[in-house]
Amino acid sequence: MASSKRNKEVKPEAVNQYRRGFLTRLGLTTATAVTSVSAHGAWSGKTMEDGFADFFQQHYQRMTAEELQETLRRIERKAKQQHGVRISCVDTPPLDGVVFGYAINVSKCKGYRDCVEACLEENNLAPDIRYISVLELDEGSMNLELADRYYEHEEVPVEGKFYMPVQCMQCDNPPCVKACPVNATWKESDGIVVIDYDWCIGCRYCMAACPYSARFFNWTQPELPAERINTNTNYLGNRPRPAGVVEKCHFCTQRTRMGRQPACQEACPTGARIFGNLLDPKSEIRYVLENKGVFRLKEDLGTEPKFWYFSDR
Amino acid sequence: MALLNFLRDVIRELFRGPLVYWVWILFLWVIIAVGGWSYIGQLNEGLIVTNMSNQVSWGFYISNFTFLVGVAAAAVMLVIPAYIFDRKDIRDVVLLGDTMAVTAVIMAMLFVTVDIGRPDRIWHMIPVIGSFNFPSSLLAWDVVVLIGYLLLNIGISFFLLFNHYTGSETKLKTYLPFIVLAIFWAISIHTVTAFLYSANTGRPFWHNALLAPRFISSAFSSGPAFAIIILQFVRSVANYPVRQSAIDTLAITMTVALQITLFFVVAELFTDFYFEGAHAASAHYLFFGLHGASKLTPWIWSALILLLIAVTILTIHSLRHNMVLLNIACILTIIGIWIEKGMGLVIPGYIPTPLGEIFEYLPSMTEIEVSLGIWAIGLLIFTLLAKAGMAIERGKLRLHDDSEISERV
Question: Are B356 and A217 in contact (CB < 8 Å)?
Fold first, then answer.
């Protein structure tokens, strides 16, 4: 396991190359860009009715049951037009009596980044977005400035290093929710901070507010190769996102609200990831919180993350 | 009916002017067209045509926005002496200050508009129809105070100009409450804009109680600097009567504000660097570079040097009274504060990221072109408003004593 190459992380340089490449493909002059884009623009292949419905779509929390169903069907139609794939998009409301929490066993994490890979496939991530960053740190220091998040080694773990995955902490006191000027992001009853991608105006104030760099912006229409699209999607989770909106880890609402584990937890080969219901006294996550020396990242900020770290050593 | 005449006469006035006027207007329209073309490209391709990234998610647009809110707020440096200290010489030119405020607020709003990813969804901000996160979100606060300030300034200016046009007397008593409100409101727009940044607990560079005072003091140096140049300009080009004492007062205001601004910079540098910790990483990046990344360092040092030269000129009486030197000080201050309260404030907040990543930013061509377009829109708005306003103030535009006036009475 340790000898396999795991360097699928995207470097910012690579992202920029990707971005430039994208521009070149569009033809560098604005004139050609305008024409070539308008061929795939907001209106192409869409009926006038869908276009209007898109524009006037209500906030998720304000939609009636029928409006929500119509919206979900429209999202499926749009995915077919835009990505050529027939997806199913459902609504997955939070479960009663559940508040999700996550804990990472830092001593077990070997930096393989299987979680990163599984996440991007499960959640239909654009090429320049990774919900999980695995930070490679020198043993004996937690100075994040010295962390390497784009490590490319023949073999991990590297002697003298330890690995710390970071993703959205689903804060119980989330600064991003407070920041959003239009209530496009909020905390649900199961503690997950979600985003209505169709309500977000793309001001990116939440990204400034987040102390964990957990939020990502769709700088252009995400390019998703049809064969890689996960067709089991939900509204607040992994459905294909439009351009110009913010997204982030949502604890795989499309899975966890159906009683499954998040993709990153399932993918982890070392068992470093413990995910479960904080309200269930018999859950593994509760065992960890009660019996291990746990800590949270930047706890001093008062954001109350529902994401813990611990170590067996 | 007087209103229709007013609008008709104003529009006539705007279409009347020497060749230079038309060349200037045409020049601005050319730049606006270039900026507009770039913006269309950005609308089609997305914000990917900017150099912003997930690491540095606000850039040149929001930097200009921040600077311009300060310019808008600084109009109060004309309003306070004009009305509170009852300075006749300044009251003669106070409308130009209001015009500057209106222009700067419109420009600030345009800069926010071009920055957002989904301008088609801007209606989500309208209360009731949309969903407005007020009073929780500081961005919502900023929208409220900016729109309020814009309406207040348009209202006051229109009231004064219209009464002047119809020849009716304006009693200070009737509109003084609005003036006082506008004074407090002016301070509030820049304070709220500072709070927009200092609200972010995860960004130590911004999360700082000195930020709002720094915003106000720097705005009160760059705003009067603009006003001094504008007043001289209208005096020489449009032969508008501007008394030297008005300019002198602005120069003194600017001097003190710039001295305080630089004192605040020193206070911040001391706190950051006497015993340097993680909270100083962004300041270290800005002033000295961090782990080899130092794209902003030349910017901030140029700004500081420009401001130091300006404050030296301003502080020494004989130098300040030399109009050439005063103008140099004004231009240096405007550029210096534009860097310091723009790129120098916004970008380091993102470097390093809260997770310690260092990813640098400089604006792309699209960002520069769109921004130039907005500056040209601002200059155009100012030119038109000021031209009409001055014509009315000087009595060039008057409601003629015809049938309509008797109808009105």
Answer: no
- Here the tokens at position A307 are 């994401």
SS3 A3: coil
Strand partners for A294:
A310
Classify B103 in phi/psi space as left (phi over 0), alpha (psi -120 to 50) or beta: alpha
What is the pTM (predicted TM-score) of this model?
A: 0.92
Spell out which residues of chain A touch residue B53, defining contact as CB-CB under 8 Å.
Answer: 12, 15-16, 219
**B130 in contact with A at a CB cutoff of 8 Å?**
yes
* Dist CA B167 CA B6 (whole Å): 12
Q: Which residue has the tokens 């994040």?
A: A144
Of B303, B160, B161, B321, whose CA–CA distance to B244 is shortest?
B321
Dist. CA B368–CA B197, nearest whole Å: 23
**Bridge-based pairing state of the strands A88-90 and A100-105:** unpaired
User: Would you list the DSSP string of B339-404?
Assistant: HHTTHHHHGGGGSS-TT---------HHHHHHHHHHHHHHHHHHHHHHHHHHHHHTTSS---SSHH
Q: Select from A214, A152, A149 the least CA-distant residue to A177.
A: A214
In a 3-state reduction of DSSP, which class is residue A210?
Answer: coil
What single letter denotes the amino acid at residue A309?
Answer: Y
Distance from CA of B282 to the nearest CA of A (A): 11
Residue B117 touches chain A, beta carbons under 8 Å: yes
Tens digit of pLDDT for each residue in B348-388? 999 999 999 999 999 999 999 999 999 999 999 999 999 99
Considering CB atoms only, which of A15, A133, A209 is closest to B202?
A: A209
Cβ pair B133:A183 closer than 8 A: yes
- Interface confidence, given as ipTM, is 0.94
How far is it, in rounded angstroms, from Cα A226 to Cα B364?
Answer: 32
- Decide the pairing of beta strands A246-248 and A215-217: antiparallel
Over the range B378-401, which residues count as b (16 or more CB within 10 Å of their CB) and which as e?
bbbbbbbbbbbbbbbbeeebebee
Contact at CB, B117 and A59, closer than 8 angstroms: no
Three-point CA angle B112, B116, B117, nearest 5°: 170
For residue A62, list chain B residues with Cβ-Cβ distance below 8 A: 131
DSSP reduced 3-state for B409 = coil
Interatomic CA distance for residues B396 and A247, integer angstroms: 57
Please report which residue ranges of B74-117 form alpha helices under DSSP H.
Answer: 76-79, 88-91, 94-115
3-state SS track over B312-347: HHHHCHHHHCCHHHHHHHHHHHHHHHHHHCCHHHHH
- Asked if A199 lies within 8 A of B199 by C-beta distance, the reply is no
pLDDT digits (tens, 9 = 90+) for B62-88: 999 999 999 999 999 999 999 999 999
CB contact under 8 A, A15 and B53: yes
pLDDT tens, per residue, chain A with 313 residues: 333 333 334 444 444 444 444 444 343 434 433 433 444 444 556 788 888 999 999 999 999 999 999 999 999 999 999 999 999 999 999 999 999 999 999 999 999 999 999 999 999 999 999 999 999 999 999 999 999 999 999 999 999 999 999 999 999 999 999 999 999 999 999 999 999 999 999 999 999 999 999 999 999 999 899 999 999 999 999 999 999 999 999 999 999 999 999 999 999 999 999 999 999 999 999 999 999 999 999 999 999 999 999 999 8
